[in-house]
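During the reporting period the student researcher (J.K.) took over the structure-prediction task from the postdoctoral fellow and processed the backlog of single-chain submissions. One of the processed entries is reproduced below for the supervisory committee.
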Amino acid sequence: MLLLAVGTFLIFNTVTTLSSSYWLTMGARFMSGVAAGLAWGILAGYARRLVPAELQGRALAIAMVGIPVALSLGTPAGAWLGSMMGWRVPFGIMAALAIILFIWTWVAVPDLPGQQADRRLPVWQVFRMPGVRPVLAVIFLWMTAHNILYTFIGPFLQLSGLTGNVGLILLIFGIAALVGIWITGMLVDRHLRHLVLLSLAALAAVSVVLVAGMREQIVVYVAVIVWGWSFGGASTQMQTAAADSAGNHVDVVQAMVTTAWNLAIASGGVTGGLLLNNAGAVSFPWALLTFMAVALIIAWRAKKHAFRPGARGGPVK
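J.K. obtained the following structure tokens:
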């Protein structure tokens, strides 16, 4: 499945690079998104199977380090290459990298066995398992809040006169996110609940600070650092919590995590666009605060099954 995902990504990024048809290009982008979603849905379970139970959280942190790096460095790098050399160049580079990744995966990544059919639960039954729904709800609320600000960071930075520094802001965000990944990787197997609550509270605090000082440049820079740190560990924390809640059905729940995450990306874009058109960018911190307050309450209350205190044990049976 991993090779299929990488191979599909390779094929349709190549089509995008060479296409002269609008509809063919849009179809290729759709299939590239399908491939990316498939890869994201299986990588967490794959990474966890490679190591003993006590190291699963750390393995997930390492495997998922590419997500914030891609968001904070890859996106502006692709935009810069596109502006300098044409939009086809970034897609060609991605296709070339996919060739290298396909060969590397084929040669180096072990072929781990999948879950036996007689032990696999239907999606609906996994969704109803205690702890799964609170984790999915927190993912949706957290990532919707994040994407409201991240998607429309340009208009928001106009309030403080930092529009010309979007690249620098994203770089600072990315560096802070890497610190967040490093901290999460060290602590996630012993302090998952504390990390989740602290990360949610940190973004809620960022929202409060931005409400009061969104027009002050130094306040925005500090807020971006804390925001980046809190986002860096989000993928590892949420996927670890979801996998713990689902036990042996980790692959099914990770597909749900991917769906919730991408729905939140869409939700953040739609919500942010509506807020920008109707209330302006000054409304973003208030929206973030609302979403994060609800997410924090859900995570705090989901102590028994979703975000349990103490060190992580083996998979839930």
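The committee noted the following: Residues 2-108+124-301 form a domain with the Growth Hormone; Chain: A; fold (CATH 1.20.1250.20).
J.K. will present the remaining backlog at the next meeting.
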